Amino acid sequence: MERDDYLTHLRRDGHRMADLAEGDLSAPVPTCPDWTLAELVRHTGNVHRWQTAAVRDDPAEFPDPATWRLPPAEGQPLADWFRAGVDEAVAVLSAATPGERRWTWAGPGTTDFYFRRIAQETLVHRIDAELAAGVEPEPVDPGFAVDGIDEMCDVFIPHAEGQPVGGSGETLHLHATDATGEWLFTMHGDHVEVARGHAKGDAAVRATARDLLLISWGRDPLGELEVFGDESVVARFRTAAAL
């Protein structure tokens, strides 16, 4: 996906969250049990601001929170604060050149890291906010969801190497039913190997790309999963994803 594709998703999903923030901010978030909708919105808004700062300021390490963690002004509705952060992020990232070097928490990277990360973060939390508000989640572009699973494989799984997974070579195949996307995960004691493409695993899950993305982020699917083979392997994967 290209920069402007990501920013189109960011703008749409971010404004959707802002609209939801005009509702009951005390509503619990079922996918993030320790948070209310207000806390979810503040978290996502602060993520937008630090990622914007990382692209704009090109820091050598994690940006100083004093430069970006700006709470709502006195009397400013949380929805307006959040929407302003989305709009600033779109403006700053729209002016950034793809492929320019940038610090990232995952190691040396480029602005492309942030185009993808800010949009994918907002997508998942947009769905969290919709569930908190008790409304039907809006559709997710299948290709964008596939890209989110690829980001998990490209960035998060390698970054988590060394953390306990508890596997012993079990394999899980994920197959998107509405887009081109297949992955094979091999779970070891302290890391997960990833291969793309069609393969036979100890277990397999077929579902929409959206629902595969959600279970990859430790969330329940919104639709049905077709599960084949050893269901304990699926359970191990979902437990590890929830950590």
Description:
The mean pLDDT is about 95. The protein starts with a helix and ends with a helix. Strands 5-4-3-6-7 form a five-stranded mixed β-sheet. About 50% of the residues lie in helices and about 15% in strands. About 40% of the residues are buried. It has seven helices and seven strands. Helix 2 (about 35-55) packs parallel to helix 3 and helix 2 (about 35-55) runs antiparallel to helix 4. The protein is globular. By secondary structure, it is of the alpha+beta class. A hairpin with a 6-residue loop joins strand 1 and strand 2.
Distance between the termini: 28 Å
Helical content stands at: 40-55%
Largest sheet: 5 strands, mixed
Strand content: 5-15%
Structural class: alpha+beta
Gyration radius, rounded: 18 Å
* Strand ordering within the main sheet: 5-4-3-6-7
The number of helical runs is 7
Averaged pLDDT: 96
What is the topological layout?
Blueprint (H helix, E strand, L loop, with lengths): L2 H18 L16 H21 L20 H17 L6 E2 L6 E2 H23 L8 H18 L10 E7 L5 E6 L4 E5 L6 E5 L1 H8 L9 E4 L1 H11 L2
Parallel strand pairs: 3-6
Antiparallel strand pairs: 1-2, 3-4, 4-5, 6-7
Helix pairs in contact: 1-3, 1-4, 2-3, 2-4, 5-6
